[in-house]
C-alpha cells in the first residue's frame, strides 16, 4: 500500500510544480463538454452549450431573466510581483450576443478578478462585475472591459458600447460602436483583442488593429492582487439576451522572478528520487531479508535492550547516538529517528524524508552536519528549529534566493518541512495534509516552538488530522518488532 501512496504524492507534486512553471497560455477554438474541467462556471447559471460558453442561461429550461454569471479559467494568472514587475498578456475572443427581448440587456464583460464567485446582487445593470455594495470600492478587486448592451443608468453612454471599468460599473472610458457599424446584440460574431503590455490596456474590435477602441494607461497592480482569475461575466435583467463566448485564446507572459518555483521543481524531482531509493531499498531488503537486520544489531548491540525496555517506559535518545546509528544505516539525514530502532521504512518515515528534502531545497544546504563536531546545530532540522524558536525562521531560507519570494510562502514551506520532521512519527502530517498545504488549501500544521525530544515508543498524536480518507494518515503498525 505504501508505494501507490508515495507514487500518488510524487505525481501530484510533479504536476503541481509543472503547473507553476508554465506561463498561462491556453486556446479554446470552441467549447465542448470536455473543456468543463478547465473552467469555473457559476452553478445553475453558466453553461457550455452549442460549442460556446453561455455566461448566462440560454433558453433551455432555465429562466433567462435577472441572471448574473461568471465563467473563468480555472487557474489564476500571475499579474505582477513584489519585485515591481508587471505581467503582460494578449487575449482574443469571439463574442456572440443575441437579443431575446425588444430591448437587449444587459451585457457581457471580459474580467480580471480576485473572486471566482459572481457577487450576490450583480444581475441587471451590474453585469456580474460588482454589486451595489462593491461598486466603487477597493474590495471589488475587479477590472473589466464591458460590452454593454443596455442603457441602464444615466451615466451609461448608450446600448452598444465598450467601456473600461475599474472596481465599478462606471466606465472610466467608454466608446460607442455605432460609428464603426458594429452592433453587439444582433447575434453576429464580434472578435475582440485585448492587450496589456504592463502599462497600457488596449482593446481592438474585429481585427481593426490600427484603430483601437480603447487605449488607456492602467497600472493593474494598483487595483488587483498578484494572482487573478481571467474570464467573462455577464448579466440579464427583465431584458434578456444570449451571452455567448464562442472561442477564446490567452497568452500571458511569465514573471520569472519567483525563485520559489525552483524550490518546488527540485522538491518534485527529489520526491521521485526518494521514491526510487525506497523502491531500491525495498528490493534490497526483499533479496537479503534478515541479513540487514542482523548487521544493524551487531553494530548497535543495545537495540534489543532498548526495544524491550520500551514496553515499560519511553526512553529518550541522545541525538549523537542516533546520528551515529544513522551513519551506520548509510543514509544520513533523510532517515527518521525511529527507523533506526524499527529497521523499516513506513509512510511516516517517507514523510520525514520528504520534509528533510523540502528543507534542504528551501534552505539551499545539505541535510547533515557540515562538520563532525558541530553536528547538532549544523543538522538542518535542528538548526532550523532553533531559528523557528527564536521567531526568525526566514533566516534559514537559501541566501541565493536573494529574498525574492513571498515571505508567507517561504515561511509556510519551512514550517511544513519542520512539521514533517517531527521526531514523533505520530505528530507528522499525512501526505494528504502536506499536499493541501502545498496547494494553499490548508495552513501549515502547528509546530511546537521547542523541538520535542525523540522518545520510543512514540506518544499518541498531539493533534487530530481532519478528514477521514487520509492518504497515509493511518499510522503504519510497528508490530513487526515484537513479531520478529
Ligand atoms: C472544436 O475544436 C476542435 C479543435 O480545433 C475541433 O477538432 C472540433 O471539431 C471542434 N468542434 C466543433 C463542434 O466545432
Ligand atoms: C502581444 O502582442 C504584441 C503585438 O503582436 C506582441 O508584441 C507582444 O509580445 C504580445 N505579448 C505577449 C505576452 O505575447
Ligand atoms: C455584494 O457582494 C458581496 C460579495 O458577494 C456580498 O457580501 C454583499 O452582500 C453583496 N451586496 C449586495 C447588496 O448584494
Ligand atoms: C458606481 O460607482 C461609481 C464610482 O466608482 C459611481 O460614479 C457610480 O455612480 C456608481 N454607479 C451606481 C449605479 O451606483
Ligand atoms: C499608452 O497610452 C497612451 C495614451 O493613454 C499613449 O500616449 C502611449 O503612447 C501608449 N503607450 C504604449 C506603449 O502603447
Ligand atoms: C509596470 O507598470 C507601471 C505602471 O503602469 C510602469 O510604470 C512600469 O514601468 C511597469 N513595469 C514594467 C517592468 O513594465
Ligand atoms: C503601479 O502600482 C504599484 C503598486 O501599487 C506601485 O508600486 C507603482 O509605483 C505604480 N506605478 C506607477 C507608474 O504608478
Ligand atoms: C421586471 O418585471 C417585473 C415583473 O414583470 C416587474 O415587477 C419589475 O418592475 C420589472 N423590473 C424592471 C426594472 O423593469
UniProtKB/TrEMBL annotation:
Transmembrane segments: 262-286
PROSITE patterns (UniProt xref): LECTIN_LEGUME_BETA, PROTEIN_KINASE_DOM
One GO cellular component, as annotated: plasma membrane
Organism in which the protein naturally occurs: Populus deltoides (Eastern poplar)
Cell cycle in keyword set: no
Keyword list, A-Z: ATP-binding, Cell membrane, Glycoprotein, Kinase, Lectin, Membrane, Nucleotide-binding, Receptor, Serine/threonine-protein kinase, Signal, Transferase, Transmembrane, Transmembrane helix
Record membrane topology: Single-pass type I membrane protein
Major subcellular site: membrane
Protein name: non-specific serine/threonine protein kinase
Top-rank taxon: Eukaryota
Gene3D superfamilies linked: 2.60.120.200, Transferase(Phosphotransferase) domain 1
Stored InterPro entries: ConA-like_dom_sf (IPR013320), Kinase-like_dom_sf (IPR011009), L-type_Lectin-RKs (IPR050528), Lectin_legB_Mn/Ca_BS (IPR019825), Legume_lectin_dom (IPR001220), Prot_kinase_dom (IPR000719)
Domain Protein kinase: 112-454
Recorded family membership: Belongs to the leguminous lectin family.
Annotated localization: Cell membrane; Membrane
Signal peptide range: 1-23
EC category name: transferase
EC numbers on record: 2.7.11.1
One term of GO molecular function: ATP binding
Amino acid at each position: 500500500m505504501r508505494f501507490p501512496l508515495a507514487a500518488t504524492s510524487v505525481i501530484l507534486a510533479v504536476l503541481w510544480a509543472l503547473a507553476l512553471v508554465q506561463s498561462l497560455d491556453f486556446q479554446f477554438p470552441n467549447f465542448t463538454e470536455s473543456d468543463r474541467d478547465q473552467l469555473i462556471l457559476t452553478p445553475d447559471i453558466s453553461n457550455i452549450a452549442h460549442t460556446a460558453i453561455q455566461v448566462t442561461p440560454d433558453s433551455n429550461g432555465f429562466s433567462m431573466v435577472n441572471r448574473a454569471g461568471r465563467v473563468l479559467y480555472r487557474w489564476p494568472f500571475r499579474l505582477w510581483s513584489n519585485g515591481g514587475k508587471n505581467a503582460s498578456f494578449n487575449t482574443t475572443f469571439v463574442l456572440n450576443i443575441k437579443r431575446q427581448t425588444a430591448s437587449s440587456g444587459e451585457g457581457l464583460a471580459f474580467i480580471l478578478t480576485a473572486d471566482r464567485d459572481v457577487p450576490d446582487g450583480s444581475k441587471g445593470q451590474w453585469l456580474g462585475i460588482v454589486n451595489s455594495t462593491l461598486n466603487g470600492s477597493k474590495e471589488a478587486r475587479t477590472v473589466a472591459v464591458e460590452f454593454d448592451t443596455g442603457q441602464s443608468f444615466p451615466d451609461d453612454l448608450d446600448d452598444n458600447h465598450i467601456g473600461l471599468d475599474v472596481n465599478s460599473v462606471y466606465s472610466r472610458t467608454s466608446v460607442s460602436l455605432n460609428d464603426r457599424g458594429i452592433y453587439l446584440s444582433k447575434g453576429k460574431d464580434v472578435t475582440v483583442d485585448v492587450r496589456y503590455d504592463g502599462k497600457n490596456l488596449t482593446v481592438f474590435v474585429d481585427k481593426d488593429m490600427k484603430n483601437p477602441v480603447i487605449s488607456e494607461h492602467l497600472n493593474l497592480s494598483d487595483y488587483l492582487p498578484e494572482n487573478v482569475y481571467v474570464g467573462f461575466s455577464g448579466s440579464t435583467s427583465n431584458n434578456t439576451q444570449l451571452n455567448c463566448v464562442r472561442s477564446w485564446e490567452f497568452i500571458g507572459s511569465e514573471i520569472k522572478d519567483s525563485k520559489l518555483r525552483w524550490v518546488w521543481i527540485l522538491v518534485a524531482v527529489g520526491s521521485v528520487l526518494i521514491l526510487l531509493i525506497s523502491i531500491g531499498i525495498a528490493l534490497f531488503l526483499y533479496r537479503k531479508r534478515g541479513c540487514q537486520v542482523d548487521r544493524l544489531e551487531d553494530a548497535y548491540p543495545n537495540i534489543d535492550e532498548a526495544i524491550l525496555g520500551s514496553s515499560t517506559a519511553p526512553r529518550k535518545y541522545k541525538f549523537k547516538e542516533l546520528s551515529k546509528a544513522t551513519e551506520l544505516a548509510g543514509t544520513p539525514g533523510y532517515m527518521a529517528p525511529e527507523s533506526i530502532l524499527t529497521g523499516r521504512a513506513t509512510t511516516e518515515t517517507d514523510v520525514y524524508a520528504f520534509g528533510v528534502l523540502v528543507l534542504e531545497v528551501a534552505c539551499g544546504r545539505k541535510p547533515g552536519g557540515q562538520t563532525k563536531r558541530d553536528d547538532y546545530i549544523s543538522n538542518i532540522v535542528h538548526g532550523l528549529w532553533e531559528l523557528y524558536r527564536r521567531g526568525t525562521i526566514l533566516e534559514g531560507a537559501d541566501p541565493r534566493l536573494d529574498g525574492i519570494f513571498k515571505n508567507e510562502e517561504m515561511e509556510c514551506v519551512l514550517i511544513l518541512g519542520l512539521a514533517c520532521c517531527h521526531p514523533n512519527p505520530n505528530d507528522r502530517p499525512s501526505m494528504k495534509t502536506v499536499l493541501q498545504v502545498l496547494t494553499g488549501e490548508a495552513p501549515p500544521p502547528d509546530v511546537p516552538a521547542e523541538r520535542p525530544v525523540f522518545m520510543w515508543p512514540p506518544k499518541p498524536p498531539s493533534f487530530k488530522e481532519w478528514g477521514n480518507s487520509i492518504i497515509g494518515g493511518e499510522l503504519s503498525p510497528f508490530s513487526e518488532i515484537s513479531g520478529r
